[in-house]
Amino acid sequence: MDLVIPQHVAIILDGNGRWAKSKGMPRSYGHSRGAKNLEVICEDAYNMGIKYLTVYLFSTENWKRSQEEVSALMQLFRRYTKTSIKTAKKNNMKVRVLGDPSALDDDLQKNLAELVESSKDHTGLNFQIAINYGSRNEIVRAIRHLAGDCVEGRVAPEEITEEMFSGYLDTREVPDPDLLIRTSGEQRLSNYLMWQLAYSEFYFTEVPWPAFTKDDLWKAIEKYNGRERRFGGRLEE
Ligand code: IPE
Ligand code: IPE
Ligand code: MG
Asked: Ligand 2 in contact with 55 (CB < 6 A)?
């Protein structure tokens, strides 16, 4: 049976810390294994026919973690973004960044900008990384921008539509996710893509992110194929 491959898969990659703890290792070990796994899953996803992959790397709430964990994560992101410049070239992957980079260290901001710029003409996997991302923060930033355009007279309030508003979000140019996957057992959104996930199918798995494999991705896609997507409409008799 041929499976329908979702065009856009969004992932909340969760459980790095618990996975590491279960192995008697520090949380930072879980994060670095998680980052490695992300490179593998990116290739697998593209080979399966997924066109857009959007992953949650760091939320606007994750600053509340210990200073030690936050700085270990930032160090990891510095390395990860550097490597990604090379892998994006090798895999023809186009990278976009979701979130507000202004709170990140200058060198990390520079890496992110370079990653986006150097991959902008690539035609393979569209890969979105959400870093210092929160859906509420994204919506507020979009509203500020749009309100500014209204004040300047570029937009009249009655011209605002859902489609136009979407164009102010960090995900402009990216279609809404068809499937959301969250690893490691939690069943919540944690401030992820609340506008964009309005009609996505949700798949939750107990598998922690560092242990998540291509087979687990297939399982999610199989489940997705068993769903009847309705978008509010009536099913045909
Ligand atoms: C996900 O793993 C990665 C980030 C949120 C940065 P966690 O760090 O949330 O791991 P758990 O959920 O504590 O196991
Ligand atoms: C969500 O995971 C954020 C990322 C995966 C980056 P968390 O582990 O931070 O979410 P909560 O705190 O369990 O809701
Ligand atoms: Mg977590």
From this structure: no
Number of other residues whose CB lies within 10 A of the CB of residue 234: 6
Please indicate whether residue 13, judged by its CB atom, sits closer than 6 Å to ligand 2. yes
Query: What is the Rg, in whole angstroms, of the alpha carbon atoms belonging to the chain?
Result: 18
Residue 1 reports pLDDT greater than 90: no
Active site residue ranges: 14, 62
Question: Is any atom of ligand 2 closer than 6 Å to the C-beta of 146?
Answer: no
Summarize pLDDT for 157-203 with one digit per residue, the tens. Answer: 999 999 999 999 999 999 999 999 999 999 999 999 999 999 999 99
pLDDT in tens, 76-95: 999 999 999 999 999 999 99
Nearest to 192 by CA among 120, 109, 100, 130: 130
- Which ligand 2 atom lies nearest to the CA of residue 188? 14
Substitution site in 12, 19, 76 for ligand 2 pocket (most atoms within 8 Å of beta carbon): 12
Backbone phi, psi, residue 114, to 5°: -65, -40
Does the reported pTM lie above 0.85?
Answer: yes
* N- to C-terminal Cα separation, the chain: 24
Any idea which residue has 């997507």 for tokens? 229
Nearest Cα neighbor of 178 from 64, 50, 68, 55 is 50
Cβ 186 under 6 angstroms from ligand 2: yes
